[in-house]
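Thread title: Can someone regenerate the structure for this chain?

I was given the following input by a collaborator and told the matching structure tokens would be attached. They weren't. Posting the sequence so someone can regenerate them.
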Amino acid sequence: MLRPRLLLSAVLACGLASAWADTIQLKDKAAIVGNVLAEKPDQIAVDVGYTVLVIPRSQIVKVVKGDTPPPPAAKPPRGQKAIAASAPTEAAQSKPGFYLAPNKAASLRSVRELVNEIGEAVVQVRTPSGLGSGFFLNEDGFLITNFHVIESETQISVEVYHQKDGQLDRKTYKQVRIIALNKFADLALLKVEDRDAARFKSVALGSAEVLSVGESVFAIGSPLGLERTVTEGILSTKTREMGGLLYLQTTAQINPGNSGGPLFNLSGEVIGVTNMKVTSGEGLGFAIPVEYVKFFLDHRDAFAYSLDNPGTPYRYLEPPSRTRQTRVEE
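Best answer:
Regenerated them for you:
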């Protein structure tokens, strides 16, 4: 699972934390100050302002809630620098200017309200061989879709429905460049580069880690080419293993054409990228957890698309067969 890991050797100072922050006392006389987002039998998710740490229970000595004064900051050993963990703010971003990932979830709202507000950020991605969905990460035209939506294609167009004076204005952008690809995670980063492109409506990336099974979710996409289709359901499981990766499973209807579209929580944040379903059943849709998406975006230079890169058209080699030894009679 791609998620932040706790470095036990780091000493986190808690003297700068706000009075309502929680304090997690660790072994080795270390402590972390932040807001506890979720508590599970084997781990605790803690928001420290610039990221979310997932701390194993085996490393926790005590959890002091915000209504109890936090212990004094531990003095770091000689030569080791202490890192101050400040209280989170709603405007905090993991990568300022590229994608928005608030550390504090917004209030819950109805699907009807959210669709009117964020539906414009969901687009249809077309290629000569088919179509899929996608969503904008920022106003500059960077968007996420599935790798399999654009696989082996370079002629890509994006259809956007701009809201203008209470009406939807359909616009097709044909100057779309491939920025980065990750075949194994089934993710692609594109950019609209049309000269007449307006500023695009974007959506924030949430966290699948803090979700609970049974929570309501909804998807927006273009199943079978029916653009701006909304489907609602619940999160069935967060850990459905398929092909060596963990997926979110949902009862929200997912069909061909939904691929690359967002799966939202009721705060209007993307918690997954829809990419497949079980064709022999209903209500068995799957989405790539948003944590994979963040990792892909944070390391997009490593996944940069280039035909000049010898690593782009890679192929697997067959493993060598076991050599058969023959005896030579004397």
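The chain is about 5% helix and 35% strand.
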